[in-house]
Amino acid sequence: MKSTHLSLIAGTVALAAVTGFAALTAPGDAGATGATAAARLPVERSSLLCPAPGLSELAETTYTSFTPASEGGGEAGTAELKPSVPTTGDAGDDTTAKKDTKKKKEDSGKPVVSLKEPGKPVTADASGADAPALVGTATGRLAPGWTTQQTTTVVAGASRGLLGLSCTGPDTDFWFPAASTAKSREDYVHLTNPDDTAAVADIELYGPDGSLKSDVGEGITVPARSSVPVLISTLTNVAADDVTVHVTTRTGRVGAVVRAAGDNMGSDWLTASVDPAGTLVLPGIPADATSVRLVAFAPGEDDADLKVKLLGRTGAISPAGHEDLHVKSNMTAGVDLKDITRGEAGSLLLTPAQSGKATPVVAALRVVRGTGDKQEVAYIPATGPVGAQATVADNRAKGSTLLLTAPGATGTVKVTASAGSGGGERTVKTYTVKGGTTLAVTPQVPAGLKGSYALTVETESGGPVHAARTLALPEDGIPMFTVQTLPDDGGTVEVPAAEQDLSVLDD
């Protein structure tokens, strides 16, 4: 009898290129099988989820979708974001409500923004409180590094502010320090399900004294391809200024993000912190920040003792009176660093206070610009390095600042400003960031720019380098701004280099 065998390693390589899984192990001894050094291949499929931007009839939202140009070939592919399916059903015998729900379901199949080619961003606009959450997929050459920026302006009311967000991928575990259940805050967790079956999520809250017990946050159903907002103050009767939100799923996966709004300080999106780690970098504090609050949480069984350093233009300093931070196990710690930057943009570095004792933590910053009734807030979560490549879209001719920080060794990065959404030619510039410093640069605007453009940061040597983009769009004397971090986009995955074994064996 004869049979044909496809090698397990070759099949796993193909799977990795499609799914984006980065770590693969073949059974047996790699040396004995002749496996060679790992290679990096572009992913062939990416998913993005954008939360509903509304809550105000005055909301004006722009979506900017972009995939960096690459040298590789492959299929052209597609990249589309479509409205999520509405979660509300028909309202009794109300004919108008039934027709409205039916129309929303029909519209959920129509793309809001559709990208046609790498290297050039496309934009779309939405208005009002009814703008839906978006669910999207990119394939082929449009998948590696695909990003979409959601930028919303609300000029008045409780939700006033400039709200920026790099739409997120689905996952099963998220940490959000710097949320709040205080009476002065109105924070929502937005859960969006990209899949064709329902997901079930749990939301846990941790305050300064530990877990905020509640059964209401357990077993939240997020219907297929739908989005559910949850007001976190309804999950507990405890009002706390600093709360860490932990979102996990029992079944399925979701995109999760927190929309935080406060009295007299505007609103913005709080994205998830990087996974718990002993050392964290929080890049992108504006030079004119009037208030910076650090919030940290230790999810394990051990307390965490951290050193706090500000990495500025010329080096690292320890903020007077806040050189160290003690974070008790399963308790949220918050510290007011006030105007720590003092006119010089910077990044925060958290490291173990004792060498060899690294207790994993998560962290985020609440940053305020302006004073009195002219304040505006933004949030900066701890983030990973730019790695091979990281991108942020919706940069304007004026108002964009790129902050680059090298917490360890000196690093060199290449920054590419793409062609504009309405025209213009891309520009490329290289920056060297000295170890222990933060470099704030105004990006070189593309020649002949029309519309908005994307910034792509690639590591050239040294590092690691962490990055964040500040977008400032002042309105009526209010210094409206938003900050987006730039972690590695995961556009490529590391896979073993192997060959197919199509030999025919005799049994």
According to DSSP, the number of beta strands is 40
Shape estimate: globular
* Span between termini: 6 Å
Mean pLDDT across the residues is: 88
Radius of gyration: 23 Å
Total DSSP helices: 3
Largest beta-sheet characterization: 5 strands, antiparallel
Low-confidence stretches: 1-35, 89-101, 502-507
* Binned strand content: over 45%
Secondary structure class reads: mainly beta
Helix fraction, binned, reads under 10%
List its salient traits.
3 helices, globular, disordered C terminus, disordered N terminus, mainly beta, 507 residues, 5-stranded antiparallel sheet
Q: What does it look like?
A:
There is one protein chain. The protein is mainly β. Helices cover 6% and strands 47% of the residues. It is built from 3 helices and 40 strands. Strands 11, 13, 14, 15 and 17 form a 5-stranded antiparallel sheet that branches. β27 and β28 form a beta hairpin. The longest helix is centred in the N-terminal third of the chain and has 13 residues. The radius of gyration is 23 Å and the shape is globular. The N and C termini lie close together (6 Å). The N terminus and C terminus are likely disordered.
Short characterization:
This protein is mainly beta. Helix content is 6%, strand content 47%. The chain contains three helices and 40 strands.
List the helices and strands and how they pair.
Elements lengths: L1 E3 L3 H12 L10 H4 L2 E7 L2 E6 L9 E7 L12 E5 L11 H13 L5 E3 L6 E6 L6 E6 L7 E8 L6 E6 L6 E7 L8 E5 L6 E9 L2 E2 L8 E3 L4 E5 L11 E9 L3 E8 L3 E5 L9 E6 L3 E9 L6 E8 L4 E2 L6 E4 L4 E7 L7 E7 L9 E8 L6 E6 L8 E6 L4 E7 L4 E7 L5 E3 L1 E7 L3 E5 L5 E4 L2 E10 L3 E7 L8 E5 L6 E6 L6 E3 L1
Antiparallel strand pairs: 1-40, 2-39, 3-8, 4-7, 4-9, 5-6, 5-8, 9-10, 11-17, 12-16, 12-18, 13-14, 13-15, 13-17, 18-19, 20-26, 21-25, 21-27, 22-23, 22-24, 22-26, 27-28, 29-36, 30-34, 30-37, 31-33, 31-36, 32-35, 37-38
